[in-house]
Amino acid sequence: METLKKSANGLYRHFAQINTIHNFSNGYALSGGSFELGVNEACFWFYHIICENQDFLSSFVFQNWTLKKVGGHEYLIVVRDEKGAMIYSQVFINSEFMFDELIVLVVKRLILLPSEFQYYQTSAQKNQPFSIKKMSSEEFCFSFN
Protein backbone atom coordinates (compact mmCIF):
# COMPACT_ATOMS: atom_id res chain seq x y z
CA MET A 1 0.00 0.00 0.00
CA GLU A 2 1.08 3.51 -0.71
CA THR A 3 1.47 6.05 2.07
CA LEU A 4 -0.92 9.01 1.88
CA LYS A 5 1.88 11.39 2.95
CA LYS A 6 -0.26 13.77 4.95
CA SER A 7 -1.56 14.39 8.41
CA ALA A 8 -4.39 12.24 9.70
CA ASN A 9 -5.70 15.34 11.49
CA GLY A 10 -6.73 16.93 8.18
CA LEU A 11 -9.03 14.02 7.41
CA TYR A 12 -10.61 14.16 10.89
CA ARG A 13 -10.82 17.93 11.39
CA HIS A 14 -14.63 17.81 11.09
CA PHE A 15 -14.70 16.54 14.69
CA ALA A 16 -15.12 19.96 16.28
CA GLN A 17 -17.30 19.00 19.24
CA ILE A 18 -17.11 16.28 21.83
CA ASN A 19 -20.39 14.40 21.90
CA THR A 20 -19.26 11.02 23.20
CA ILE A 21 -16.29 9.58 24.97
CA HIS A 22 -15.25 5.97 25.10
CA ASN A 23 -13.62 4.27 28.05
CA PHE A 24 -10.21 3.11 26.86
CA SER A 25 -7.36 1.96 29.10
CA ASN A 26 -5.83 2.64 32.52
CA GLY A 27 -8.58 5.15 33.37
CA TYR A 28 -8.11 7.10 30.13
CA ALA A 29 -10.90 7.84 27.68
CA LEU A 30 -11.10 8.68 23.98
CA SER A 31 -13.16 11.51 22.53
CA GLY A 32 -15.52 10.67 19.69
CA GLY A 33 -13.03 11.94 17.11
CA SER A 34 -10.03 10.11 18.49
CA PHE A 35 -12.14 6.94 18.78
CA GLU A 36 -13.27 7.16 15.13
CA LEU A 37 -9.70 7.78 14.02
CA GLY A 38 -8.56 4.75 16.04
CA VAL A 39 -11.22 2.53 14.45
CA ASN A 40 -10.85 3.75 10.87
CA GLU A 41 -7.06 4.01 10.79
CA ALA A 42 -6.30 1.08 13.12
CA CYS A 43 -4.13 3.21 15.40
CA PHE A 44 -5.26 2.19 18.87
CA TRP A 45 -1.64 1.08 19.33
CA PHE A 46 -0.71 4.80 19.48
CA TYR A 47 -3.27 5.40 22.23
CA HIS A 48 -1.89 2.40 24.12
CA ILE A 49 1.59 3.97 23.96
CA ILE A 50 0.09 7.15 25.41
CA CYS A 51 -1.58 5.27 28.29
CA GLU A 52 1.48 3.13 28.99
CA ASN A 53 3.67 6.21 29.45
CA GLN A 54 1.42 8.01 31.93
CA ASP A 55 3.26 6.64 34.95
CA PHE A 56 5.78 9.45 34.58
CA LEU A 57 3.77 11.91 32.43
CA SER A 58 0.49 12.09 34.36
CA SER A 59 1.68 15.16 36.30
CA PHE A 60 1.41 17.09 33.02
CA VAL A 61 -2.29 18.00 32.79
CA PHE A 62 -1.90 18.95 29.10
CA GLN A 63 0.14 16.83 26.69
CA ASN A 64 0.57 17.31 22.94
CA TRP A 65 1.47 13.95 21.34
CA THR A 66 2.90 14.04 17.81
CA LEU A 67 3.56 10.92 15.77
CA LYS A 68 5.70 11.89 12.77
CA LYS A 69 7.17 9.69 10.07
CA VAL A 70 10.94 10.12 9.83
CA GLY A 71 11.62 7.55 7.12
CA GLY A 72 10.59 4.13 5.92
CA HIS A 73 8.46 2.59 8.66
CA GLU A 74 10.11 4.65 11.40
CA TYR A 75 8.11 7.22 13.37
CA LEU A 76 9.19 9.67 16.02
CA ILE A 77 6.82 10.24 18.92
CA VAL A 78 7.31 13.60 20.65
CA VAL A 79 5.31 14.81 23.64
CA ARG A 80 5.20 18.48 24.62
CA ASP A 81 3.64 20.18 27.62
CA GLU A 82 1.35 23.24 27.55
CA LYS A 83 4.39 25.54 27.19
CA GLY A 84 5.78 23.58 24.23
CA ALA A 85 8.66 22.01 26.14
CA MET A 86 9.50 18.47 25.07
CA ILE A 87 8.80 16.08 27.93
CA TYR A 88 9.16 12.72 26.17
CA SER A 89 10.28 11.21 22.86
CA GLN A 90 10.46 7.71 21.43
CA VAL A 91 11.21 6.09 18.08
CA PHE A 92 8.59 3.59 16.96
CA ILE A 93 8.43 1.21 13.99
CA ASN A 94 5.07 0.70 12.26
CA SER A 95 4.46 -0.55 8.73
CA GLU A 96 0.67 -0.26 8.76
CA PHE A 97 -0.01 3.42 9.52
CA MET A 98 -1.01 5.24 6.33
CA PHE A 99 -0.20 8.82 7.36
CA ASP A 100 2.96 10.82 7.85
CA GLU A 101 1.69 12.58 10.95
CA LEU A 102 -0.90 12.39 13.71
CA ILE A 103 -1.36 14.80 16.60
CA VAL A 104 -3.54 14.08 19.62
CA LEU A 105 -3.89 15.89 22.90
CA VAL A 106 -4.20 14.49 26.39
CA VAL A 107 -6.06 16.76 28.79
CA LYS A 108 -6.41 15.31 32.24
CA ARG A 109 -7.46 11.74 31.35
CA LEU A 110 -9.08 12.44 27.96
CA ILE A 111 -7.37 11.76 24.62
CA LEU A 112 -8.79 14.10 21.98
CA LEU A 113 -8.07 15.57 18.58
CA PRO A 114 -6.77 19.14 18.26
CA SER A 115 -9.98 20.04 16.37
CA GLU A 116 -11.98 19.04 19.47
CA PHE A 117 -9.79 20.94 21.93
CA GLN A 118 -11.30 24.39 21.40
CA TYR A 119 -14.73 22.99 22.25
CA TYR A 120 -13.28 21.37 25.38
CA GLN A 121 -11.43 24.56 26.36
CA THR A 122 -14.43 26.84 25.73
CA SER A 123 -16.63 24.62 27.86
CA ALA A 124 -14.09 24.65 30.69
CA GLN A 125 -13.84 28.46 30.57
CA LYS A 126 -17.61 28.71 30.90
CA ASN A 127 -17.37 26.53 34.00
CA GLN A 128 -19.52 23.91 32.33
CA PRO A 129 -18.17 20.72 33.85
CA PHE A 130 -18.48 17.52 31.90
CA SER A 131 -20.65 14.74 33.11
CA ILE A 132 -20.16 11.23 31.87
CA LYS A 133 -23.10 8.87 31.68
CA LYS A 134 -22.39 5.22 31.10
CA MET A 135 -24.20 3.90 28.01
CA SER A 136 -22.54 0.50 27.74
CA SER A 137 -19.35 -1.14 28.91
CA GLU A 138 -17.39 0.61 26.14
CA GLU A 139 -19.21 3.86 25.39
CA PHE A 140 -20.04 6.86 27.55
CA CYS A 141 -22.31 9.79 26.83
CA PHE A 142 -20.52 13.10 27.23
CA SER A 143 -22.61 16.12 28.18
CA PHE A 144 -22.40 19.41 30.02
CA ASN A 145 -24.18 20.21 33.28
Q: How would you characterize this protein structure?
A:
This protein is an alpha+beta fold and 145 residues long. It contains 5 helices and 9 strands; from the N terminus they run αββαααβββββαββ. A 9-stranded mixed β-sheet has the order 5-4-3-6-7-2-1-9-8. The protein is globular, with a radius of gyration of 15 Å.
Task: Provide a short characterization of the protein structure.
This protein has 145 residues and is an alpha+beta fold. It contains five helices and nine strands; from the N terminus they run αββαααβββββαββ.
Topology, please?
Elements: H1 8-11, E1 20-25, E2 28-31, H2 32-41, H3 44-52, H4 54-57, E3 62-71, E4 74-80, E5 86-93, E6 101-107, E7 110-112, H5 114-125, E8 130-134, E9 139-144
Parallel strand pairs: 2-7
Antiparallel strand pairs: 1-2, 1-9, 3-4, 3-6, 4-5, 6-7, 8-9
Strand order of the largest sheet: 5-4-3-6-7-2-1-9-8
Count of strand segments? 9
Low-pLDDT stretches are 131-145
What's the story with the biggest beta sheet? Answer: 9 strands, mixed
Helix content range: 25-40%
Number of domains: 1
Strand content: 35-45%
Which radius of gyration do the C-alpha atoms yield?
15 Å
Annotation field: number of helices: 5
What general outline do the C-alpha atoms trace?
A: globular
The helix/strand class is alpha+beta
Sequence of secondary-structure elements: HEEHHHEEEEEHEE
Give the N-to-C terminal Cα separation.
46 Å
Please give the CATH class.
Alpha Beta
CATH topology: Nuclear Transport Factor 2, Chain: A
**CATH architecture call:** Roll
Q: Give the rounded overall mean pLDDT.
A: 82
